[in-house]
Design a protein that fits this description.
Structural class: alpha/beta
Radius of gyration: 28 Å
Strand content: 5-15%
Shape: globular
Number of strands: 18
Bound molecules: protoporphyrin IX containing FE
Largest sheet: 10 strands, antiparallel
């Protein structure tokens, strides 16, 4: 029988290069059936995989059929529980390298040696949706990085938002129960626009800062590659002398921080529910390796109480104006997983996976997380031995006396499994500090047992207001419209009213504009309902205020100030028929020279003729949509496009979503011809028109680099801007 090879380029590339120690480690367990005979799980070659064993051709199947039973039994058990949160995710391999030694502040080996390339596995995720839910939903995104260091595994399990909803781990199950689909009818999927979520939030003033972030466009990222990441909690750096400092971690994407428009996101979820997963996969397969710089904000111990917020409060960030972010290294993702289940699904992150040089702080949310992850992974991965799974095991050997249990892989050859011992020569022995033995930072702690929180934790609104004030006008508009949408979906009026009351504490104008959507007055602001504030406390009295260090606006909080000087990896659709093929080929070449990814769209998927060569069509119009692209060019073909309803959407959507548009030849007046803009409109921001593609190329590139032209937006509630 002919032996067929169906190996993807992805697989063969991986086999070639094994310089990466984690890749080499994974290869030990990687199998590939190409050119191999089919066997049972016991290695028995199988001769007939089509027919079960029967008593006669029309008779019943025999219990004896061990091959049928083995295959079906395995199939019956192929699913594991999805993650309790962050169930929907996508992963990639890569590496991290520090720019220069950070040994003055941390002894972490991977942050000390600029020559060291530390392998990483990163998993991005949404929080609320289940494993099969859509990517472009409004939600925080997980940003979890596993560093396979020479000192063991370090996990930085962060989000794309620098703060969190709650201050104390004891509230986490309540938060997640509130945001997950409502228990009686399991709706809505992967969405916060429902009563239980806002009921909870309206009673949790500490969530107001995070609410500003999740109602902003940060919660609908354009791509995982264009998101920031944050460790959220304050951690500790510890150097070789044992000196500690507080540290906050940041990931800064080299492509800048970019988002979708809300209407666009809802359409993307219908057109391509795997939008972010596909984007990450295709970028890596195409050699456009996503990169982030690791940033740190370091606070000396003596400054612990200097700020108007508590460093241990995960609902607060440290404004970059107060403590600048030092960029200390770079992470590059350059390899897609070989097998989604084995890597992306089975990976187990944990904020307690530490290396010497990094330690925890007493942040009460972090402290609770330290319990949660192993606990949940025991049921998700089904055994205490999940650390032995290829994706989870470190690149350094593991020696201890933890033994046995379900699905144990390792074969421990030692006679003893206890310590101290003499029969085993005292091994494995404790590592001395100079051998890299981990020592917890000896932070002095004293106090009485108490259920409560420190004074500064009661300021729930200052940083929510800082975030809102720091947004550009279009960003504020989007945030307001997100709140109008979410609160507009509520069935219970009292919840909506309570939320407007909360927003009034953040910013009066914000509350007024959200309330406009419901024809209700902004109520007199009520006392926050947080029980830890005595009922007769004026909320203003618990807002710490120090003239010296209050930041009015923080430029780093606005995406308006992000990188907008390149079209690298931006996806551009060129809508074209045969008559514009030569022009389209020219434009495609020019855009690709500048790093864009260009797709040719035509009525039918067949090659177009430029006169000299063939121009391959990537997608037929009916199989794609302009919401999946960053910018659109239409080259001629006006009479043809008139016949296609999809063609009008192909232009009206990017116009509505403020994307760059190029209209060439007789397509130049399509926006007015189709009534997308009034006939009187002249220069429209982000729309370039011209007789030929050469004439518009430079202006189009500038327009695409700007990402969006929000000046074109129409307010969906008031119609302002139309
Ligand atoms: C007390 C608060 C929290 C608890 C109890 C908690 C619990 C959990 C649990 C149970 C999982 C599923 C883990 C698994 O099945 O492997 C998870 C995943 C995750 N959590 Fe948390 N979480 C908390 C707060 C946070 C915060 C503040 C962040 C961000 C800084 C965060 C980031 C993540 C990420 C990124 C994942 C997904 C990891 C992956 O991709 O596999 N969590 N969390």
């Amino acid at each position: 029988m002919a032996k067929r090879s169906t190996k993807s380029s992805n697989t063969s590339d991986r086999k070639k290069s094994t310089a990466d120690p984690k890749q080499a480690d994974l290869l030990k367990d990687t199998t590939d059936g190409t050119d191999k005979v089919l066997t049972s799980n016991q290695g028995l070659p199988i001769n007939d995989n089509q027919n079960s064993l029967k008593a006669g051709l029309r008779g019943p199947t025999l219990l004896e059929d061990h091959l049928l039973r083995e295959k079906i039994t395995h199939f019956d058990h192929e699913r594991i529980p999805e993650r309790a949160v962050h169930a929907r995710g996508s992963g990639a391999h890569g590496y991290f390298q520090v720019y220069k030694s950070m040994s003055a502040v941390t002894q972490a080996g991977f942050l000390n040696d600029p020559a060291r390339r530390t392998p990483v596995f990163v998993r991005f995720s949404t929080v609320a949706g289940s494993r099969g839910s859509a990517d472009a939903v409004r939600d925080a995104r997980g940003f979890a990085v596993k560093f396979y260091t020479e000192e063991g595994i370090y996990d930085l399990v962060g989000n794309n938002i620098p703060v969190f909803f709650i201050q104390d781990a004891i509230k986490f199950p309540d938060l997640i129960h509130a945001v997950k689909p409502e228990p009686h009818h399991e709706m809505p999927q992967a969405a916060s626009a429902h009563d239980t979520f806002w009921d909870f939030i309206s009673l949790m003033p500490e969530s107001m800062h995070m609410i500003m972030w999740v109602m902003s466009d940060r919660a609908i990222p354009r791509s995982y590659r264009m998101m920031e990441g944050f460790g959220v909690h304050t951690f500790r750096f510890v150097n070789a002398k044992g000196e500690g400092r507080f540290v906050k971690f940041h990931w800064k994407p080299l492509l800048g921080v970019h988002s979708l428009a809300w209407d666009e996101a809802t359409k993307i979820n219908g057109k391509d529910a795997d939008f972010h997963r596909r984007d990450l996969w295709e970028a890596i397969e195409g050699g456009n390796f996503p990169e982030w710089e690791l940033g740190v904000q370091i606070v000396e111990d003596k400054d612990e109480h200097k700020y108007p917020f508590d460093l241990l409060d995960p609902t607060k960030l440290i404004p970059e104006e107060l403590v600048p972010v030092q960029r200390i290294g770079r992470m590059t993702l350059d390899r897609n997983p070989t097998n989604f289940f084995a890597e992306t699904e089975q990976v187990a992150f944990h904020p307690a996976h530490l290396v010497p040089g990094i330690d925890f702080s007493n942040d009460p949310l972090l402290q609770g997380r330290l319990f949660s992850y192993t606990d949940t992974q025991l049921s998700r991965l089904g055994s205490a031995n999940f650390n032995e799974l290829p994706i989870n095991r470190p690149i350094v050997p593991v020696h201890n006396n933890q033994r046995d249990g379900h699905m144990r892989h390792g074969i421990n050859a030692d006679r003893v499994s206890y310590e101290p011992n003499t029969l085993g020569g005292g091994c494995p022995y404790q590592a001395m500090v100079k051998e890299g033995g981990f020592v917890s930072f000896p932070e002095p702690v004293e106090g009485v047992k108490v259920r409560g929180k420190s004074e500064k934790f009661h300021d729930h609104y200052s940083q929510a207001a800082l975030f809102y004030r720091s947004q550009s006008v279009p960003e504020q508009n989007h945030l307001i419209n997100a709140l109008r949408f979410e609160l507009g979906k509520l069935e219970v009026t009292a919840v909506r009213e309570r939320m407007i009351g909360q927003l009034a504490y953040v910013d009066a104008d914000l509350a007024e504009r959200v309330a406009e959507a419901f024809d209700i007055d902004v109520p007199e602001v009520e006392l926050p309902l947080n029980r830890s504030i005595p009922a007769d406390t004026d909320p203003q009295s618990v807002q710490p205020y120090d003239e010296q260090i209050v930041v009015e606006r923080s430029a780093a909080l606005s995406m308006q100030n992000t990188i907008k000087d390149s079209i690298k990896t931006r996806c551009v659709a060129i809508l074209v028929t045969d008559e514009g093929a030569a022009e389209a080929a020219e434009l495609k070449k020019a855009l690709e020279r500048n790093g864009a990814v260009v797709k040719i769209i035509a009525p039918v998927k067949r090659d177009l003729s430029t006169g000299k060569t063939a121009l391959p069509v990537d997608h037929a119009l009916m199989t794609t949509s302009s919401v999946l692209f960053d910018a659109v060019a239409v080259i001629g073909g006006k009479d043809t496009w008139k016949k296609f309803p999809d063609a009008k959407d192909f232009l009206s959507d990017p116009f509505r979503h403020s994307k760059a548009i190029a209209l060439v030849g007789d397509a130049a007046d399509l926006l007015t011809a189709w009534g997308i803009v009034p006939a009187a409109a002249k220069a429209i921001p982000g729309v370039v028109t011209g007789r030929d593609s050469k004439g518009i190329t430079a202006a189009f590139i500038t327009a695409v680099a700007a990402h969006r032209h929000w000046e074109r937006e129409v307010d969906p509630l008031t119609g302002a801007g139309a």
